[in-house]
TrEMBL record, chains A, B:
<dbReference type="InterPro" id="IPR018490">
    <property type="entry name" value="cNMP-bd_dom_sf"/>
</dbReference>
<feature type="domain" description="Cyclic nucleotide-binding">
    <location>
        <begin position="11"/>
        <end position="59"/>
    </location>
</feature>
<dbReference type="InterPro" id="IPR014710">
    <property type="entry name" value="RmlC-like_jellyroll"/>
</dbReference>
<dbReference type="Pfam" id="PF00027">
    <property type="entry name" value="cNMP_binding"/>
</dbReference>
<dbReference type="InterPro" id="IPR000595">
    <property type="entry name" value="cNMP-bd_dom"/>
</dbReference>
<protein>
    <submittedName>
        <fullName>CRP-like cAMP-binding protein</fullName>
    </submittedName>
</protein>
Length: 191, 191
């Protein structure tokens, strides 16, 4: 299972393979059933999750009780409430398995030990989070740049497999649409 | 000058002071005049900038020729097009000094050398970018959660010094308002 993570690490930096072989004990392998929660808003966030297989959505509860999806994570992505994870504070987001999802997670305590034992992992997380931050900046640019309909077309073009995979009501939530509006755009797009 | 950066590093992690004393040669100190560009969209991005004193805005050029501000950075923030910096690709954003701005910048080449000489700096950048990414996720939440007027009030409450400091037309751009609409909201807010 850990090989998935090692493959991902090797995309970002070169860490001595012997050290990478010592990674496994710091991580826990877990399978979440479809719709099971990985993290609940308002609770402490002790883990960060590396998605080995599957898909999760990151959401918060609107005042009207509706779940607002702000992001997804699929294979090779990390998901957590990273502020709550880093500070030991209460999570502002929930995370739920969109489908059966297999993860490797690490707790904040285990991460401290990991970074002592294999400080080279800081390089991986540095480059990973620098890229994630940059991607979030690009997403902000898209939100300024595109109308809602253009946003749909942008995601369809750039992430077609992803668009097929995610249930329509979650995609609509993510794009800030009503499900009805999304359905209209899809029909227009297909015709 | 480097003490500002060292103070910031010490907020995130503890690196041996002797090692931190070896930081300076990797950085260049530079002062940008008000309105001077630090980075130009469409050009290569070789540097990342630590703001010692001042304020910059990060923007892109809309198809209609208008500059759309997507973010600001003030003292103790890092600014760059981090994707372009990491990949050596072309910048999707420009960065301009909102006021006279003093920076310490590091080039991608110097950063490679720095991380070889002081690999502990990866820990700083890991925790820094994890936090930046988390802050970007929270900002996305605000964009879903708040109306434009609520967004203005949110920023006024949480970043009052910042709101005073930034010219109105840039703030309007950042909030996605016309300057006229911002002026109306301010009047309502003050009355």
């Amino acid at each position: 299972m850990i090989e998935h993570l090692i493959t991902h690490i090797n995309k970002f930096c070169s860490i001595n393979p012997e050290k990478l072989n010592a990674l496994a004990p710091f991580f826990t392998h877990k399978i979440y059933k479809k719709k099971e929660l990985l993290l609940r808003e308002g609770h402490r966030c002790y883990e960060k999750f590396f998605i080995v297989k599957g898909c999760v959505n990151i959401f918060y509860l609107r005042q009207n009780g509706i779940e607002q999806t702000v992001d997804f994570a699929i294979e090779n992505w990390w998901a957590s409430d990273f502020l709550a994870f880093q500070d030991g504070s209460v999570a502002q987001f929930s995370i739920r398995a969109v489908e059966r999802t297999e993860v490797l997670y690490i707790t904040a305590d285990h991460q401290l030990e990991l970074l002592k034992a294999i400080p080279e992992m800081n390089e991986y997380f540095h480059l990973l989070f620098q890229r994630s931050y940059a991607a979030a900046q690009m997403r902000l640019r898209f939100l300024y740049e595109f109308s809602k309909e253009e946003l749909y077309h942008h995601f369809s073009e750039h992430f077609p497999a992803f668009m097929q995979r995610v249930p329509q009501y979650l995609l609509a939530s993510f794009l800030g649409f009503t499900p009805e509006y999304l359905s209209e755009i899809r029909k227009k797009h297909l015709s």
